[in-house]
UniProtKB/TrEMBL annotation:
One of its GO terms (cellular component) is extracellular region. Residues 66-107 form the TNFR-Cys domain. InterPro entries: TNFR/NGFR_Cys_rich_reg, TNFRSF_decoy_receptor. PANTHER family: CASPASE-8-LIKE, TUMOR NECROSIS FACTOR RECEPTOR SUPERFAMILY MEMBER. Its main location: secreted. It comes from Branchiostoma floridae (Florida lancelet). Transmembrane segments: none annotated. This is Tumor necrosis factor receptor superfamily member 11B-like. It is found in: Secreted. Disulfide bonds join C67-C82. TNFR-Cys repeats lie at residues 66-107. The lineage of its organism: Eukaryota, Metazoa, Chordata, Cephalochordata, Leptocardii. Residues 1-23 form the signal peptide. SUPFAM superfamilies: TNF receptor-like (SSF57586).
Amino acid sequence: MWALYTICCGILLTINLLVRCEADEPPPKWEYYNPLSGVTLLCDWCAPGEFMVTECTETTVTQCRTCAENEYTEHYNHVRECFRCRECLKAHEHVLLGCTPTNNRQCVCEDGYFLASEFCFQHTKCPIRYGVVQRGTPWKNTKCRRCSSGTFSNVESSMATCRNHTDCGPMGLCVTQRGNRGVDNVCGICPHYNTSKDVFRERWAYRSR
């Protein structure tokens, strides 16, 4: 059994390495027609993070150069210049990943905001009687839902969920004002409690259960 497991792991590792190698390999050479010589040549591509300075000739390979600061190319290419990295200058956004020769700068909305139509908007606050069922992210707005029976929300919030009404019984109290979707139950002394001695007796009986 152990031998079979070892063989399977070896096969998976080999496949993974092959896929990695294939992913890192440059694409087939590209055709370049030299108008001076009238010859069509197969030129090498420039690697990610580079751009082409001159095409290949019959005696030289493609000449490439590394992208300058704040510029990038993500793929094998023969472009004449690198692409400019985006700037994170819009309101309420900041840098998630910095610019490198092989990757564009990644921007993200700050906490409490989400991206929509290329701008950062504040997460919606669920109104009273509604609770958050899905918190907002830098890419999605808050999702709200009306509180169900037995629950409530008495605040406008982009984070608060609906809460269960307070159960007065375990505290030896009774509901003196029943809550709704916007307010909690109000607990108080039960009507049949006439003296402090009765209150003590009832609470002791509850604890002794």
